[in-house]
Amino acid sequence: SSIPAHLAGSIVAGLILWLVTIHTLRYSLKLLFMYKGWIYESRGRGQKPTLATRAWVLGVKLLSGWQKPMLYSFQGSLPRLPLPSVRDTMKR
Predict the structure, then answer these.
(1) Which has more confidence, 6 or 42?
(2) Which residues, at least 6 apart from 28, have a Cβ–Cβ distance to it below 8 Å?
(3) CA distances from 28 to 34, 35, 81 (A)
């Protein structure tokens, strides 16, 4: 009777650990995708990215994997975009 209890406990613990890991990875990617510093850096011959941008690229590569992502694979990790006000939309 002890073996089924240990088996059930192991399954529940593994499931909880897996869920926590997945949510941590997705939330970390969401935080990384909020970084916009790379947009404002000067680019060109002889220009190197800043240390923050290089750390950002490394973090995204480590958390997302080295393979090419599928089309909608990061859809849930993207930060939410602000909606324009109704007044601005009606002016258009």
Answers:
(1) 6
(2) 59, 63
(3) 10, 12, 17
Query: Which ranges in 48-91 belong to alpha helices (H)?
Result: 51-64, 86-91
- Domain count along the chain: 1
Give the DSSP letter of residue 51. Answer: H
- Length in residues, the chain: 92
**CA-based nearest residue to 54, from 72, 82, 32:** 32
| 29 neighbors 18 (Cβ within 8 angstroms) | no
Digit-coded pLDDT (tens) for 27-56 = 898 889 888 888 888 888 888 888 999 999
Rounded to 5 degrees, what are φ and ψ at 32? -65, -35
